[in-house]
Amino acid sequence: MALLQLENISKSFFGVEVLHGINLTLEKNTIVGLIGENGSGKSTTMNILGGVHQPDSGRMLIEGVPYAPASPRDALASGVSFIHQELNLFPNLSIEENLFIRGFPHLHWMLPVIDRKRIRARTKQLLDLVDLQVLPGTLVSRLSQGERQLVEIAKALSTDARIIIFDEPTTSLTRREIDRLFAIIDRLKTQQIGIIYISHILRDVLALADNISVLRDGSVVGAGHKSEYNIDRMISLMVGRSIKQLFPKRNAGSAGEPLLKVEGLTQPGVIRDVNFNIAKGEIMGLAGLMGAGRSETARIIFGLDPHKSGTIEVAGQKLENANPHAAMRAGIAFLTEDRRAEGLLMNAPIYDSEALPNLDTHSHPRTGWIDNSALASEAEKYSKRVQLNTTSIGSVLARNLSGGNQQKVVLAKWLMRNPRLFILDEPTRGVDIGAKAEIYRIINALVDEGCAVLMISSEMEELIGMCDRIAVMSNGEITGSFSRADFNQERILEAAMRPSRQEGGA
Amino acid sequence: MASLGKRRFWRQLLLSEYLVVVLCLVYFIAMIPIVPRIASVETFQNILSDMLPLIVVALGQTVILIIAGIDLSMTATIAMASVVGASVMTGTGGPLAGSSLATPAGILTMLGVGAAIGWFNGLCIARLRMPAFMVTLATMMFFAGVAIWFVTLRSETTSIANLPRSFVVIGQGKMYGIPNSLWVALAVGVVMHLMLTRTVFGREIFAIGVNRLTAEVSGVQVRKRIHMAFIVSGLCAAIGSILYTGRLETGSPIIGSNILLDIIGAAVIGGTSLFGGKGKVIWTVFGVLFLVLLDQSLKLMGLTLFMVFAIKGGVILAAAIADAARTRLSGH
Q1: In this predicted complex, what is the ipTM?
Q2: Which of A197, A340, B51, B132 is most buried by its number of CB atoms within 10 A?
């Protein structure tokens, strides 16, 4: 009997079905590798397994017994344990305290005093299981990322987990730590435990897993023994779809004088030797996996984060002191990936968000006296131009708008500055399809007027549909560059998963 | 239905920016039977003269609260400006004794002291990224101490008297039948109002208070603005100090040492949010009115100073609770 079985699991959010009848089988003493693009349904599936969401239909069985967790606590009690990409440890507490945070054993049931001795002995035992030779009382903050990952595993084992799910466990580990982690995972699977291993690093999945399941658009498009798979087949299964006719036609960008010139941009641990140019009227896409350094590159260009070496030139003018104010004066606009936290004043009227980056251009340079009527009419004009759907920009709060309208507010506030270079980081994330098309239209109109655009997106179709050129980043470096004629999802994805020079192709 | 309508009424009232004025009026009318003297010209004059310097200082605090900061050092700034300014102006042993330059030099010195303390606070908070509470608590204690030490340096007494007449009238005299301190408070209020509502500085500090990250990404030079806000706060404390010192006719290191709670309380009672991003000049004026009215009425009732403190503390606490409730009600 299978340890875990998912039968026909479906799930909708706000009337949109995101999982269409998922089936998955996990046997004892095996590892299933689960792969798929961002948004393919991996997280939703795992959230259902972990009790965060409940399925609309279908059922789950653990050793033949129906399993329907109502909360993460239920899942844990049933022996389902998660090890997340971001670790859930308290760095200011010791290892033993972290392991027992869900319930400390008391010295005596009536006394609220913790039985330190028992905790220490049990922690020692668990640390031995994951082969971590440190004292149980060590503060987590003093451990390396790899060691913390091992503590997480020990924590999972402390709850007598039968099913352990690893979600991108290697993102912040060094190669040595990864090898050590894999040795432990291999050993774990001999102890009546089933493991689901989720990762973008396909060669790791291929090396570690016994069986592989591929998700795409909320369906399982391939499942079988790893001998049936190689990296090429995995990628084509993950991608395999046609591009919808969502993208308006546009004249190709002129290959004129570069407007933005980035040379040798480096910030240790973040990005390394990044070079590219963008011409007037050109859209360059930046593809890559999460954490590949795309948003980081954008933030550095806009002066939000520092860089150690390299140069940024806008229209032949070097950007000297790195800060957003200077970047804006050079004609750069930046739509960040998190519009709520970084793009809008959520608790203020829409107008305030739109006016904020435009105060300096609508005020007396010395006294700072604002020309309110000019600013207000500009804000109205640009709200109309982006087809913002609201009753009044002066009284409706930004947080009361839909995701698509919020994104239009962010677009409007930057368009008011007439930017020469617009950096768009995930411009259509969390936006419905109608607003998406409108945002594409706005971007195209902007480019037709000669603006250069740097577009970051995790949606491959979006990049292929919109861009004149796509550069691909992996591990903080540019690992590939494609012009429109040779756009090819598989080749782009292959470049995104290519080990960078830094990693030495290990 | 009726109860629903009633609830909506209370909700509207709680969210209204004129809540405090309504409360003042209700309180005033309720007090007339208890202490009839509250409805006298003399009481009104007392209330007004107590309000004016406090308004000036509380407006400085308002600017800091808007950026979600706090300035505890204002009272020490008042004291420091008072003694240093007085030492420049005083007729007994001052460097400019008898000179017609004494008053302008003294005023500039006081403003300079205020700006300097504000600049230092701002340096620590904006540039060195220290918490405002800690920095201003420390500067409060430091300058409160230094002010006393400064006085003992130059005289046997605990204050510096014999200030030029032309200075003292700022706190006491009248122009066109209106107290000079009212002119000063009016000027500060109008300038502050215009600064907050009509200038880039004003709009940007509100943005910083609402969402600092968004402000930064929108090109606001956040640290520069915060630094500036603390200088404004220091200047307000100094102007307040000019009024207090003029009224007392002496530079004293304990001037304003009791009003810290009033300064912060007045702003919060008026509706300026401790969470940042919200505040208006007129709100703070209302808040000061309420506190001073309360203060006067309690004194007229013959309560001891301790009772007055206890009641004021309770009222300010209630205002802080109302602030939190309002923040919740307006939906978060």
Answers
A1: 0.84
A2: A197
Residue of chain B whose alpha carbon sits nearest to that of A343: B214
Task: With CA atoms as reference, report the closest residue to B59 among B290, B313, B282, B260.
Answer: B282
CA A236 remoteness from chain centre: 21
pTM of the model: 0.76
Closest chain A residue to B327, measured at CA: A347
Determine the 3-state secondary structure of A452 from DSSP: strand
Position A111 pLDDT exceeds 70: yes
Question: B219 contacts in A (CB within 8 Å)?
Answer: 324-325, 327-328, 356-357, 360
Whether residues B200 and A360 touch (CB distance < 8 A) is answered with yes
Residue A367: count of CB within 10 angstroms of its CB: 12
Determine the pLDDT at residue A502.
Answer: 53
Estimate to the nearest angstrom the gap between the alpha carbon of B37 and the chain centroid: 27
- pLDDT higher than 60, residue B322: yes
3-state helix, strand, coil in chain B (%, to 5): 75, 0, 25
Alpha carbon distance B256, B266 (integer Å): 15
Report the residue from B198, B199, B217 with minimal CB separation from A336. B217
pLDDT per residue as tens digits for the range A414-447? 999 999 999 999 998 877 666 788 899 899 999 9
Give the separation between CA B79 and CA A469, rounded to whole angstroms. Answer: 65
So what's the pLDDT on residue A234? 83
Residue A504: predicted pLDDT = 42
The residue behind tokens 């004292």 is A135
Residue A226 in this model has a pLDDT that exceeds 70: yes
Q: A444, A446, A453: which is closest to A423 by C-alpha? A: A453
Domains and CATH numbers, chain A: 4-239 (3.40.50.300), 243-331+419-506 (3.40.50.300), 340-418 (no CATH)
CA–CA distance, A1 with A12 (Å, rounded to integer): 30
Interchain pair A325, B219: CB under 8 A: yes
Q: Which residue of A has its CA nearest to B214?
A: A342
Q: Which helix (H) or strand (E) holds B239?
A: helix B222-248
Contacts A370 to B, Cβ<8 Å: 198-200, 203
> pLDDT: is B318 or B281 the higher one?
B281
Interface residue of A347, A360, A406, A422 to substitute, partner B, most B CBs within 10 Å: A347
Taking residues A72-99, report their average pLDDT.
84
